[in-house]
């Protein structure tokens, strides 16, 4: 059994943009394993936009990470020692063990996973929380009918890529918004969206209008800011907007919505949601998503950084739109 | 039978604020009554905020009034001549006959009303479209539970006053927002709200915070602008916002929403609606509202201007918040 655990803790709260000195790598001894517990060696850490919110000490949906605490987050790993009847050495598991090499668990919130048909990392992505997030927002809030037009921002990302592919499987027109020609090409050519608008090309509204000739019936909001404004202007009457992320505002400055009156004039439904509050849908969603992955009907791309000490870089890059696909840190 | 009809038509579309020269009073001959028709003498015209939207030639929920057409709007009146089996001379009716002395109808969209227990004007207010609007937004979107806090803007107005009183009848804490000490006193002392915040007093957020110590569970949005911003900051998780009006933006300039990310962080539902698209609820709502009026459980105030030629003034005053209670023009 290992004696020491390396972990990354929150050293200070960001003032505006996150920087490396908000984090600290430290080592701490591992206590002896008690009965009813098991020890997990984390293999992959998930890096997600919501982590920015938890670094603030503000009224929010996410409990803030306390100063000096391990940065939280989803992980997949392997049981390396066990005094728990339900978990054996060698079991692959996914949980919320955060940015550290090892974690001790009593099994609460931990799920055993099968990596024979679905790769380990998929359980943190398309067949994990991001996938369930996409599934919920699309099916439970947007509830599209075949033939409708669905727009999703951050379309090449972990959530957005699943939203568009599920929309296509439901017979919809799927239009992505992403940053840069390369991401847009990927969204259309590899993920099979009908169109993708490059918000960095300087004519967001015009390009979005051209890509949505029949208007927009459903919008899956991952970004906020100007993409939200542009899409709002394209909404059809009775459109639905699932609000899942507002990266544009995560760095502290609120980003206004320019024309909220469209909510009234187009009689829109706008619904914010946090997927961890809808645990009742997870079994159905996870079953569906894992099955689609195994049948190769859901494609995805991953962005993997190696080494625990690079987790802060990975988060900073993600918040600046530098990743391409679901971001992980491989630590074993 | 009268020979001539006076009417107010849209002479030009407003650039920004509405002015008197956007309207023209004209006279036109009345055609002879055909079989299956009846002639109504309008007694009261309703003046409502939505009329501003119809003066624009813009993509909106409301079909624009064409230049030269009679300004539309709800009316109550009396049948003065009839060649229709369902309507007799002397019948009191409510319909959408607009800003004119007389109108000919085949009965479509016209409802006979009984003014023995409920006054005529109430059918254009608390027991008419504004009342149904309040009933729908509160019961079908906000869906409050006893003990929750409900905020309504334009609280002394035709819709807002009903929202708060229905919220009180449902066991909620009702908090109004209105402009000026006199309106606020009316909202608390006469309508029975628990509190009312004067948005003109210069410390909207602080006053709203003091009036909503347990946060806000439901918000009925009649105004937009800074009141929307302030209330959004007080929303509790899973709060519901019924978006019914955005007067603040009716004059053409879009008014931004400063912190839309609260929709996500508080997992809010924000729903725009137009009451004429929910005709299925009208019979139930009208029955409930008329019964509450007859039992004197719903109080209301009216602002009545005399003379057809003063209808434009009345609308301009309404849009500037000068009316107190439901605005009418008495023309007979």
Automatic annotation (TrEMBL), chains A, B:
CDD domains per UniProt: PGDH (cd05288)
Residues in coiled coil: none
Superkingdom field: Bacteria
TM segment ranges: none
A molecular function GO annotation: oxidoreductase activity, acting on the CH-CH group of donors, NAD or NADP as acceptor
Oxidoreductase found in the keyword field: yes
Residue ranges of domain Enoyl reductase (ER) in the record: 18-329
Descriptive protein name: NADP-dependent oxidoreductase
Species name: Trinickia soli
